[in-house]
Amino acid sequence: MDYLYQMNSQHDITTRMKNLILILGLLITISGSGQEVKKGNWNVDLDFLKVELPKKHKDFYSVKSEKDFQLGIDKISVQIDELTNFDIAVKLQQLVAGFGDSHTRISWNKYLDREKMLPLHLYWFNDGIFILHTTKKNQKLLGQKITMINDKPIKSVVDSLSTLITLDNDALVKSVMPHFLISTQLLEYFGIVNNEGVKLKLENQQGESWVYNIQPAHLDRKNRVTFQFDSLALCHRNERAYFWDEYVAKDRIYYLQYNKCRSQEIARKQGHRQTAKKLPSFSKFKNRVLKTIKDKPIDKLIFDMRFNGGGSSVQGTEFIEKLSQMKEINQKGKLFVVVGRKTFSSAILNAMDFEKMTDAIFVGEETGGKPNHFGEVRSFKLPNSGLEVNYSTKYFKKSDKYINTFAPDYIIKESFIDLKKGIDPVYNWIKKQ
After folding, report:
1. Which of 177, 196, 226 is the last residue of a domain?
2. Where are the beta strands (DSSP E) in 316-372?
3. Among 72, 115, 154, 307, fewest CB within 10 Å belongs to which?
4. What is the pLDDT of residues 116-173, one digit of tens each?
5. The domain spanning residue 203 has which CATH number?
6. What is the largest CA-CA distance in the chain?
7. Residues 285 and 137 in one domain
């Protein structure tokens, strides 16, 4: 999970800042406010978007009509004089989000103001949204659950912010919302807060409620404090690694975690030789895995993709095909695949490969992405504002059913207490089978 990369002092984990763009480009990467765009130039940009996005997209009008898009653009255009750059960018993203493709979006974060961010890192657990990092000044907030913001129930706040994303499923909302909730600029846009500040209603681990007033502030590795966990579950130890494995001898379980559908081999095939030098080799990983399967007594093999936001599905598909041919592994009750809210794009395709080729049992949460989805993203920029527009050039059809998520056979969710105690309920469930 994103929140665990910062726990260096407690668990010897890398503390490099995670790029929040991993999930379909929807998590906020803060770049500060851009220069003001002249109102007339905005109208030029809107006309450009009206023509170019539908023309370049694989099938932009698969959910709504051309008339819907043009009316939406025109509605924004007549309000131009009353709106800020940020307002316009957000309204464009809300419009585009309604057309059913979570890969297609407007880079509205260009106009996010880093001075209007709350100094909080949040995560949405099964039992609510909790504060896991903040500044020393606010450290009494650590481990607290947010139930209201400025007297508005957290559900109501989430419902408003959710208009910024394509609502494929609840898993996607849970993945993105913790990053949206810390922007007072967004909260002001939706009328949740004003210039008087932000009032959080919180609930402690004893179920007692209290209120805390918090102001925007900068949060980084130097000034943040972290909630102290009792220990760290196996699944959270190397989330930043592209792929890694561990043989747990006492359980006779072979655990593989596949976090990114990328490698030096893929980069080379794509012609990115310099990038390839910085990436790990999937071939070496695959050879090590196959040797371990041959040499070690294995009762269960776990292939964990719950943190995988995608990339290129090819290497995963080839690896899964290899596993499918290994009778000692490809058995019901011996091969388990873990998915979750961050499983997206190419990782979804690989989950479908497992379903098609193997007898794997799927465990975890519903995925943030859909089995059938748009992808192969490209981009262009609006001529005056410079806002980047991502759009899909291909449609992936992996299921004959229209379903908005890939649901595992057994739904098992993590609670805040699980994390605090260093428990992975998914691993524990699999171990008992």
Report:
1. 226
2. 335-339, 361-364
3. 115
4. 999 999 999 999 999 999 999 999 999 999 999 999 999 999 999 999 998 777 888 8
5. 2.30.42.10
6. 70
7. no
Structure token pair of residue 307: 């943190």
pTM to 2 decimal places: 0.82
CATH number of the domain where residue 62 is located: 3.30.750
Task: Write down which residue in 185, 205, 226 finishes a domain.
Answer: 226
Task: Provide DSSP, 390-404.
Answer: EEEEEEE---SS--S
Least Cα distance to 345 among 318, 314, 308 occurs for: 308
Percent of the chain with pLDDT over 70: 90
The one-letter code for the residue type at 401 is K
User: Per-residue pLDDT tens for 14-59?
Assistant: 333 333 333 334 444 444 455 667 766 999 999 999 999 999 999 9
Element (H, E) at 199: strand 198-203
Q: What are the start-end ranges of the E strands in 9-161?
A: 105-106, 120-125, 128-135, 145-149, 152-153
Same domain, yes or no: 74 and 214: no
| Buried b / exposed e along 306-334 (16+ C-beta atoms within 10 A) | bbbbbbbbbbbbebbeebbeeeebbeeeb
Q: How far apart are CA 210 and CA 61, in angstroms?
A: 47
Q: Is residue 400 part of a domain?
A: no
Residues 388, 413, single domain; the answer is: no
Taken as a whole, the chain contains a residue count of: 433
96 and 154 share one domain: no
Pair type for strands 335-339 and 300-304: parallel
Are 427 and 280 contained in the same domain? yes
The per-residue pLDDT of the chain, averaged, comes to 89
End-to-end CA distance of the chain: 25
Q: Which two tokens stand for residue 145?
A: 């659950």
Distance of alpha carbon 344 from alpha carbon 172, whole angstroms? 9
255 Cβ partners below 8 Å, 6+ apart? 234, 245, 246, 247, 248, 302, 304, 427
User: Does the pLDDT of residue 272 top 70, yes or no?
Assistant: yes
Domain count, the chain: 3
Q: Is 12 left (phi over 0), alpha (psi -120 to 50) or beta?
A: left
Range of the domain at 185: 113-226
Residues 149 and 96 grouped into a single domain: no
Both 193 and 253 in a single domain? no
